[in-house]
Amino acid sequence: MRGFFICGLLTACPVACSGELLTSGLDQPVSIRDAQFKKGELPGVSATLDAGTALTPPLITSLSYKGRIVSAGEPDVPFTGRASLDAAALGVKLKNAGTGYWLLPVGAADFTNNGEFQWTATTTFSGNAPVGLQDLLFVAIDSTGRGGTQTDLPICIAATIPDNLNGCDPKRKPPAVVVSLSWDTQVDLDLEVVTPDGKTVDAKHPTSALTSDAGVTTPTSDDGALDVDSNVGCTLGPLRETLVWQTAPRPGRYLVYANLFDSCGLASVRYNVLIRVLSPGDVPGTYKTTDTYRSSGSLSAAQANGGSQIGTFVTEFTQL
Fold first, then answer.
1. In which domain, by residue range, is 148 found?
2. How far is 160 from 289, CA to CA, in rounded Å?
3. Labelling 227: which of 13, 30, 117, 235 has CA 20 to 30 A away?
4. Would residue 106 count as lying in a domain?
5. 167 located within any domain
């Protein structure tokens, strides 16, 4: 009977058993490996129940996960568990986000736990997933398509631009200043920032700390650090580089550049630059971030320079 309701999962049929047209779900905030995306509301009974209210079968009987903090853009996050004997499938949805839910069949029976069905939801969080405190909903579904009581898992989705988890807890202080360069295709693009001291912070020099006459570089609290050299050697990587100052940078004028190190055989790339600063929160004792600059531009393959020169000037900012 488990295979009857979820025929769209187990065969190549173009529509679900309900006759609903299937879609890829690629535009959704979360996606589940080996699952089928269905538009509409998640079946079942809301996870918000009054004390003493009886649970409606079928049920999620256990839920295991690596932790409650994930990152926007993070792939292959495993959630595992078991479902009751009357379950045929599992539904998963990010609450208040997306246009539907993911449906996947339950797995083998676990005879060490009374034959309950095991399941694994390998979840990818889109780079556009809503950041902050969110709820991931799970529900067991029987062979007729009826869902039981939903299980609500609170999670924190961390922003792709570092904020020290301020989006999940406004009492956590975000970095003082962040300069972030992102782009839209797999080229080797580098963020470069020239500090008031004349130092160029880039992939080869990932901190704004000055080097002493003895050749020693010792970062201090007012130095910025580059988080990653992305797509080096045209390898697949995140399409973003970010320079982060946890405390206020040294006073002076900072120049921001985008440098196309290698076009990786592509004709052009579009990029975005963002400057984000720490601001007081709306409630005493809390913090938030404010974007003080946003811009976009493009670079052609002819502008790739292999790091032989400074990149294309984008903007400047002055730290008082």
1. 2-158
2. 14
3. 30
4. yes
5. no
What's this model's pTM, rounded to 2 decimal places?
Answer: 0.84
Q: Give pLDDT, residue 282.
A: 95
Flag whether pLDDT at 283 surpasses 60. Answer: yes
**292 is a domain residue:** yes
Burial (Cβ within 10 Å: 0-12, 13-18, ≥19) of residue 146: middle
**Residue 80: burial class (beta carbons within 10 Å; 0-12, 13-18, 19+):** middle
- CA 187 vs. chain centroid, Å, equals 20
The contacts of residue 11 (CB under 8 Å, 6+ apart) are none
300-309 confidence digits (pLDDT tens): 999 999 999 9
The pair of three-digit structure tokens given for residue 103, joined into one six-digit string? 């449906």
Give the chain's domain count: 2
CATH label of the domain that carries residue 152: 2.60.40.10
Q: Is 91 exposed, middle or buried, given 0-12, 13-18 or 19+ CB atoms closer than 10 A?
A: buried
Any domain includes 137: yes
Average pLDDT for 116-136: 96
d(CA 276, CA 180): 8
* CB distance 275 to 254 below 8 Å: no
